[in-house]
Amino acid sequence: MLLAVPLSSAQDTPPRPARAESPPKPEMPTLAVVGLANEVSSDEWEDLRIGMGLRAILSQELFETGHFELLEEKAEIREQLRALSRGLWEEGLRQDGAETRLLAGVGALQPDYVAYGKVVYFGRPRSRANIGPVRRNRQTIEIGLELTMLEVASGRRTIAEARGKAQTVATSAFFVYQEDRVELDESAVGTATRKAMSQAVEELMEKLDL
User: Fold this and answer.
1) CA 33, CA 151: separation in Å to the nearest integer?
2) Measured between alpha carbons, how far is 72 from 33 in angstroms, rounded to an integer?
3) How far apart are CA 159 and CA 146, in angstroms?
4) d(Cα 198, Cα 189) in Å, to the nearest integer?
5) C-alpha closest to that of 194 among 64, 77, 39, 106
6) Over 70: is that where the pLDDT of 33 sits?
7) Rounded to a whole number, what is the distance in angstroms from the first to the last CA of the chain?
8) Cβ atoms within 10 A of the Cβ of 73, count?
């Protein structure tokens, strides 16, 4: 005797649990990186290309923290920031009202944070190194930086200072230029600057607790 077995219907199939949607990623605060002021009393540091190169390093270091969205995507904003960076490098922050004017210029971009700073020290004590029968003069390059992070809404300023060192042959060039830019990766000054910049940015992040 054959028994009839009822076929399972769609109603008998248990419903699949709904796939949980990923929560939206929180928006990162926007950041305007202005650049650095030159407070080094040396002709070697007057070239504008150095200031623009240092600003690029600062932007990279802050971007790589993963805490900010840089305001440089649109061409007009990028050019505004470059103009402010040029003024900061050439005119500095020592004049009365210089910082106020700088921040007023950045305010039109409506960022959540503004990053800027200054080169406060450049030293090169000479040392001698023996290499076989040849004695060569070497120099230790030391760079001192001060970085400021301004939280626009509260007006709170967070400041960090750091120094970086690197060695070079005494006769080698401090800066290597390629047309309209400075190749900081190819000089001891660039190496020392990156070390100082990395340390200062790390200290900023710790103080900001982001």
Assistant:
1) 12
2) 9
3) 7
4) 14
5) 64
6) yes
7) 76
8) 8
Task: Give the tens place of pLDDT for each residue, 106-137.
Answer: 988 899 999 999 999 988 765 555 444 444 56
Structure tokens at 152: 């626009």
With residue 157 as reference, give the H or E element that holds it.
Answer: strand 156-169
The per-residue b/e assignment along 22-40, b for 16 or more CB within 10 angstroms, e otherwise, is eeeeeeeebbbbbbbbbbb
In this structure, which long-range contacts are made by residues 153-162, counting pairs with CB atoms below 8 Å and at least 24 apart in sequence?
153/112, 158/204, 158/207, 158/208, 160/200, 160/201, 160/203, 160/204, 160/207, 161/120, 161/200, 161/203, 162/195, 162/196, 162/197, 162/198, 162/199, 162/200, 162/203
132-138 long-range Cβ contacts below 8 angstroms, 24+ apart? 136/169, 136/170, 137/169, 137/170, 137/171, 138/167, 138/168, 138/169, 138/170
Averaged pLDDT for residues 91-106: 86
108: enclosing H helix or E strand: none
Q: Is the pLDDT higher at 26 or at 7? A: 26
Would you identify the CATH topology of the domain 28-208?
Rossmann fold (3.40.50)
Rounded to whole angstroms, how far apart are CA atoms 66 and 184? Answer: 23
